[in-house]
Write a structure and sequence with these properties.
alpha/beta, seven-stranded mixed β-sheet, 35% helix, binds S-adenosylmethionine
Length: 187
């Protein structure tokens, strides 16, 4: 359940996303997070998925066949997300998930970057429902370390009355385990 960053985030998404929810996968990649969100949002739900690589959209499309939710796969950087999310959904987004870095098994040079990640998190926060949640997984490669610093600084400076922000590390996990940040909007 809390074995690693991905299962930890999935637990949170299962707790937060309800049938009919509006949710965003800010980094589609191989589509695992989009697929889970689509199942949880179900009929009447809307899932927006973003990635800058066409292959991510192709792979994700295969994972969501048959789901009841309205899944919109968007070939665009997440730093443009607010322009793609239907204005009627602004302020109603229950969950936004970021799994930063590069596509597993893909080109490691095509990765998320601190400056665009910051812009995307700010837009995600502005579109959250009053009890919405943002999850962010940061990896420890070179650009990932820069992102981690930027994300930590951004979240640490958010006003306490508006958001609860947490950072989780996997202290006894081998290698260089990722860090998970969670932002919860306070109603
Ligand atoms: N969530 C994915 C899954 O379930 O398989 C894994 C995501 S992978 C670690 C990171 C993804 O972020 C890559 O597919 C990469 O192309 C994408 N990416 C890089 N820069 C991006 C950006 N500015 N906006 C959206 N996606 C981006």
């Amino acid at each position: 359940m809390y074995e690693n960053a991905v299962t930890y985030v999935h637990r949170i998404l299962r707790d937060v996303i309800r049938p009919g929810s509006v949710v965003i996968d800010a980094t589609m990649g191989n589509g695992w997070d989009t697929a889970l969100m689509a199942v949880l949002a179900g009929e009447g739900g809307t899932v927006y998925g973003f990635d800058i690589q066409p292959i991510a959209l192709d792979v994700t499309k295969t994972r969501i066949s048959g789901v009841a939710a309205d899944v919109r796969l968007i070939l665009s950087g997440h730093e443009e997300m607010s322009t793609h999310v239907d204005p009627e959904h602004h302020g109603k987004v229950r969950a936004v998930t970021f799994n930063l870095g590069y596509l597993p098994g893909g080109d490691k040079d095509i990765t998320t970057h601190a400056d665009t990640t910051r812009k995307a998190i700010e837009q995600a926060r502005a579109m959250l429902a009053p009890d919405g949640v943002i999850t962010i997984v940061c990896y420890r490669h070179a650009e990932g370390e820069r992102e981690l610093d930027v994300v930590r600084g951004l979240l640490a400076a958010l006003p306490q009355h508006a958001n609860t922000c947490t950072e989780t590390t996997f202290l006894n996990q081998a290698g260089n385990p990722p860090v998970v940040f969670v932002v919860v909007a306070r109603t």
